[in-house]
Write a structure and sequence with these properties.
This protein is an alpha/beta fold. It is built from 14 helices and 17 strands.
Amino acid sequence: MTTLVERACGRLEGMDTVVPVGRVREVIGLTIEVTGLFVPIGSLCEIEGAGHEIRAEVVGFRADCALLVALDLMEGIRPGLIVRRIATAPEVGVGPALLGRVIDGMGQPLDGKGPVAFLEKRPLHQSSPHPLRRRRITQPMATGIRSVDALLTCGRGQRMGIFSGSGVGKSILLGMMARYNQAPVTVIALVGERGREVREFLERDLGEEGLSRSVVVVATSDQAPTLRIRSAFVASAVAEYFRDQGNDVVLLCDSVTRAAHAQREIGLAIGEPPSTKGYPPSVYSLLSRLLERAGQAEQGSITGFYTVLVEADDLTEPIADATRAVLDGHLWLSRDLAHRAHFPAIDPLQSVSRVMTDVVSLEHQGAAMEVKSLLAAYREVEDLIHVGAYVKGTNPRADRAIAKIDKIHAFLRQSVRDPAPYAQTLETLRELAAPPAPAAGGKTEIKDKERKGAAR
């Protein structure tokens, strides 16, 4: 009996007997200054008396004021309104019933299919798996994309970036991966997406089959920056729930850049000093916290694919550079290939998978290196070929590349509605990398030369 009383007292000590309340003092840009509100960062609050529900998140403090950023429209806020805390730590409801559903950055359904039956709640922000308890990445993760599975093979638990400028096909490639990957669960975060493209992605790119084993988290570009950031972390928390059930989960995030832009808006609004290209230090901290959540764990795994919008196609742009340094590889989508109607526009020579050697056989490695080598040899002489200056026989390696380039390009091109089984992809790769058959009569010529030499 004493033990039960002690436990109850311990719970009561950790609870607030009075709900913290403050008042709006000032609004500047995105920032709402509230006096008398002493709550932790990340607390969810409600502003009363504005004529409609306004929720806001505590993002910082200045002197005796709490700094909040609204999750809803700010119209109607005025000095003196009451601000009441409604939740201390950001959480999201999780459970198997999420499969096949579309939810917003607050974890609420958007698809009109009624409420979701959650089994438990998970914190939005939690530490990534312990570095010494992560299992090694040893098994391939088939994506259904030939150029990736053959030349840039991903492993279960790997984190890959999809880098390109605007309009080169990142979202379409992500939709193909969502539909054709072999994982039992796929979690998709559409961060700052155009409102028009959300339904297009669900119906055209993902389809009913893909949606049935997916959870889609949506925050459109017109929503508050706090909600856009929350959507990325909601997707991570949902993926972690399914991972902890022992599943190999695929997490697709489109895009990391928009999450960084949202954090920049918040950081500058609360007075953070800007650094490179106006990004405050908190942006780089957010990237690491978000990307490290994926990977192998003690049971299950999260394989992450994160799109990164590269400004002016410059890979040294700050967000692209910082993201590439954290990830386990990247796929570069080439605008030049896109202009040639080569889709997906993945450039194998500028892309890399850092775990490929750990998850494929030596035969697969050798075949992939051979095909890449042929692509590189062709590019070296491509300009000469176009102007008619290349002479056959000048470079045997280039001659072989020229003979096979059409087959290689046909292999790397893939229609949106054309899934590529992993075994079939590997078989075609072996055929492309196989050495050319000896020319007819080649052995006879050698024997004739040997006879003539012996006669002399």
